[in-house]
């Protein structure tokens, strides 16, 4: 703060606004701030971002940023930062420490500003502004919720996976902050961090958190319009809308929502027109005070192939990562999974699996499925020796290169004596369907590819087809020995090819 106030470029007005912010904590170079209302948030984000960021970076001697959440209780909490002037409806808050000189400077500054809404400096009028926010956000009502569904256009589906809830998400040190930010955003869409940007390696729970935000926001505000989309689906939808002359419908689908959840933004890389469209979608939503949540495999700064104006927007709100979970969290995840899927596995087996698979939660779950499926087929108890046998092939420490979808498809086609065209084609014969589903399952388990990417590798199929295949093979493995054996043998072949 002292660095900021001594800066020659900062005006008393800006300082007055900065003083309204309450620090909540510092995390990885991000200072979390709470303010009492949207106007202060908007002002700090748009008018003093550069100055505050520079002062913070200088004070911390590292690159630093800040992220703001709105906490209406702070407005009521006004002293020590504010004093109240007037009473009743005229009541205003002013910066407590403002001297006459400062006020005059402030007024001059305000004249220079020529932005009428900013003349509302620390004037409270919280009720009016809440109304404005409601007006902007939900078309104006007396409570802080969206209007009933019958006053809107028919809603587009939210596209949420019912399994991905906050209740089914295990919190550990690796994801605690991302989880807290996700809850905050769901509880107060566009009032907390906007956008929320979550990044991290594959299989660490980013998609799960996105869906959980959508579910929770819908529970709290039943008519809130939520839309989940993977960036590859966004791309395909955009391309189709252009070729079919339905650009208007496309824009309505993505711009007339209260919460847009966009997964795996890195896949927009290199798709210039789609990126441009997303840029405008983002701006429209942000300007209209709608929440955007984005996930990516990398932080914004490292997203090559994105324009600076796009990357800087990703940095407007809060950036948080998810890390690989520690052993305790992995065990807790397996315990929860075993409970929800009714899979019987004693604690020492869960610990064994958790100790062997550490970098990807999807693999962790896959290992539990295999162990319990094997026990089921053989009518055996799940115990440590069985787990060791089953996971012997799955767990290899010497894997050097990444497995690709082409490898999985090639090996699966060869194993079943099919051509690649057959495997990826449209025939619905039972043998072909099962082989195709096994190949999709193995792509999901052995590669880091997203569902839409896997769908694309199989002749442009939808991601829901891949999800269905994944679920189907998991079930069949526990019911049919032949399927279990085929999946196991194929896994070994693919891994061997990859090693050799
Ligand atoms: N903390 C957690 N608690 C419970 N389950 C989790 C947790 N984190 C991840 N999972 C589960 O792990 C699987 C993979 O997670 P998810 O698909 O969300 O990862 P991701 O980070 O989005 O991966 P990708 O980048 O490949 O899309 C899902 O089944 C998810 O439910």
UniProtKB/TrEMBL annotation:
SMART domains: AAA, Bac_DnaA_C. Residues 159-375 are annotated as: Domain III, AAA+ region. Keywords: ATP-binding, Cytoplasm, DNA replication, DNA-binding, Lipid-binding, Nucleotide-binding. Residues 376-500 are annotated as: Domain IV, binds dsDNA. ATP binds at residues 203, 205-207. Signal peptide: none annotated. Its main location: cytoplasm. Oligomerizes as a right-handed, spiral filament on DNA at oriC. Domain I is involved in oligomerization and binding regulators, domain II is flexibile and of varying length in different bacteria, domain III forms the AAA+ region, while domain IV binds dsDNA. This is Chromosomal replication initiator protein DnaA. The lineage of its organism: Bacteria, Bacillati, Actinomycetota, Actinomycetes, Micrococcales. The gene is dnaA.
